[in-house]
Amino acid sequence: FVTKIGSIHTYAPESSGVLFSNGHIFTINDSGNSSIIYKVNPSDGSLLQSIYVNNYDNIDWEDITGDSDYIYIGDFGNNRGKRTDLKVLKISKSQFINNAAPMASVKAEAIGFSYSEQTSFTSSNTHNFDCESFISKGDSLYLFTKNRGNYKTRAYKLSKEPGQYSLTTQTSYDVNGLITGGAYNTQTNELALIGYSASNHANSFVYLFSNFTNDSFFSADVAKKVIGKAANDWQTEAIAFGSTDGENLFISCETTNFSLATLYKTDKTTLGL
Predict the structure, then answer these.
(1) Residue 219: pLDDT band with limits 50, 70, 90
(2) What DSSP string describes 146-198?
(3) What are 272's strand-pairing partners?
(4) pLDDT 10s digits, 74-115
(5) DSSP designation for 35
(6) How far apart are alpha carbons 191 and 207 in whole angstroms?
(7) How far is residue 36's CA from residue 39's CA, in Å, rounded to a whole number?
(8) What's the DSSP call for residue 95?
(9) Over 90: is that where the pLDDT of 267 sits?
(10) Rg of the chain over CA atoms, in angstroms?
(11) pLDDT at 199 over 80
(12) Coil, strand or helix: which one is 34?
């Protein structure tokens, strides 16, 4: 269902988010890695530029999205449910978009948040307050949780303005799995979410939500395609629309024993979405 573009293992072995913007792919690594955004050639996966965020560490970067003026990094990975410093980093494209140097240095602003429903911060493997996916839509960001407890996802709305916010669930959907990445297409008004089943990253899937009104993402049409197999430890972590008509999609995975970190392409027709 997907076609390999190229390996990204040498610089993004834990690719946790992809964004297609200004003709290029941007990807990031998750926890334990440098605070670097990697600008990538969408034709072969080769590294074009490393963009260093010089004023924030990578605690657990889990997704990347953007609009016409900014890139946003979701530093909201929360594997054990203990974090009290969840945030999104907001980075002006003007700091690097016309810079062709191999390395660029940028500063970010922080949009901090917490979940109003979370009252316990005790370490747990079955909590519902992890998040690895978000999108930009209009003047807001929308987060989609990775619920280890009930395998659903909840949607939260977050301002794009730096500050500290308390978020309350807008809606939820039973995805029967763990959501790891998201993308939104402005022209077609479609939301794509990627993830896998709860055991060993098996049965990777893509959901496509369409024909919704405003931000009622789960109230209209939904299609699902399983793209992985039960025997494959294929840790699909990220998805991005690759064309304004919403037809083309980029996908990335982390390095596991099954596969090195790789950038893929596909389209809605191939996926039957």
Answers:
(1) very high
(2) E-TTTS-EEEEEEESSSEEEEE---EEE--SSEEEEEEEETTTTEEEEEEE-S
(3) none
(4) 999 999 999 999 999 999 999 999 999 999 999 999 999 999
(5) S
(6) 8
(7) 10
(8) G
(9) yes
(10) 17
(11) no
(12) coil
Interstrand relation of 109-115 and 163-167 (parallel, antiparallel or unpaired): parallel
Give the span between the Cα atoms of 104 and 97, in whole angstroms: 10
Half-sphere exposure of 141 (CA within 13 A, CB side): 29
H/E segment holding residue 268: helix 268-271
Owner of token pair 């494959």: 232
Please check the confidence at residue 41 and state whether its pLDDT lies above 90: yes
Residue 78: what residue type?
Answer: N
Q: Check: CB of residue 234 under 8 Å from CB of residue 204.
A: yes
**Six-digit token string for 186:** 């402005």
Question: Residue 68 carries which side chain, given as an amino acid letter?
Answer: S
DSSP structural state of residue 254: -
Model pLDDT for residues 42-52, shown as the tens digit of each residue: 999 999 999 99
Q: How many CB atoms lie within 10 A of CB 99?
A: 15
* Separation between Cα atoms, residue 266 and residue 247, nearest integer Å: 9
Q: How far apart are CA 145 and CA 181, in angstroms?
A: 10
- Residue 224: C-alpha distances to residues 142, 174, 180, 203 (Å): 20, 12, 15, 12
Cβ-based neighbours of 25, under 8 Å, separated by 6 or more: 18, 19, 39, 40, 41, 42, 45, 240, 250, 263
Q: Which two tokens stand for residue 205?
A: 């899937």
Percent of the chain surpassing pLDDT 90: 99
pLDDT, average across residues 231-255: 96
237 and 252 Cβ atoms separated by less than 8 Å: yes
The bridge status of strand 205-210 relative to strand 3-7 is: unpaired
